[in-house]
Amino acid sequence: MSSSQSKVTRWVVKKLIAPILNADTPIVTQRKRLDRLAGAVPLPRRVKSRALKIRDIPALWIDVNAKNQRVILFLHGGAYNIGSIESHKEYAARLGLASDANVLLIDYRLAPEHPFPAGLEDALAAYQWLLVQGYSGRNIAIAGDSAGGGLALSTAMSVRDKAVELPACLCLMSPWTDLTMSGESIKRNAHSEIMLNALWMRQLAHNYAGPDGLANPLASPHFGEYKGLPPIMTHVAESELLLSDARRMTQKAKQAGVSADLEAFRNVWHIWHTHAGFMPESKHALKKMGAFIKSNTDIG
């Protein structure tokens, strides 16, 4: 049974968030509205942050007072066109608290101004920066929601292919891994999805990868090779459009010999983790992600 907080939050998502994600609304307007709405939520108490730049990439270091070397590189969602530090800082901080890990949250470049592979280049630069700062790959988890989940997977694939030290694990929340949108849930869950819509997603996918690049394995990691990747935990809602992306990715990872766990949750929606400051179902999911990160990363 859904909590009372879930019922309230569901109304907010349907009435306030979903209308922002509209193919007829200019991208700049979508960005401003999402930042204004999500950015209004303050960081949890006891959490501090400081702005920095990594090769001209704006970033936020979120200090949850973790007394260890564990760190999360957090890649925000937003279909590669919207989303920012502002929209995701509270969400990232709560994952850090659940994981007893400080967090590096970056404003990677967005389409349409900066199409693929700009965002991937920025994610790789941020990961390399952590290594230069003295963190071992064993200390680092890469996490991402929606498009950020797809980008986290692409980043790990690129790190592997460059023979750079791999991160300890990946945490993917409702990941968007197939920009061609070939998964059956895109159509099957069209009536149960309360946040996303396929028209908007297709438009923003084209902004990011172009019509000829949608199946590029580093833009759509569904089409990539998973062998040699670190352990992966994935969460998805049973009712959302991206259910097939998560299921197919997990199956493919297991077939490649990767440790991959998927949990599909009922009575929630796309990236419900965002509401962990209010909604018990979200707190429960983030607690599971935090336990996974703790069990797969070194602290020193």
Descriptive overview:
With 300 residues, the protein is an alpha/beta fold. The protein has helices at residues 4-17, 27-38, 85-99, 118-132, 147-161, 185-188, 198-209, 243-255, 280-296, and strands at residues 48-54, 57-63, 71-75, 102-106, 140-145, 169-173, 232-237, 260-265. Strands 1-2-4-3-5-6-7-8 form an eight-stranded mixed beta sheet, sandwiched between helices. The protein has one domain (4-296): Alpha/Beta hydrolase fold, catalytic domain (Rossmann fold, 3-Layer(aba) Sandwich), CATH 3.40.50.1820. The N and C termini lie far apart (41 Å). Residues 72-273 form the Alpha/beta hydrolase fold-3 domain. Belongs to the 'GDXG' lipolytic enzyme family. Pfam families: Abhydrolase_3. One of its GO terms (molecular function) is hydrolase activity.
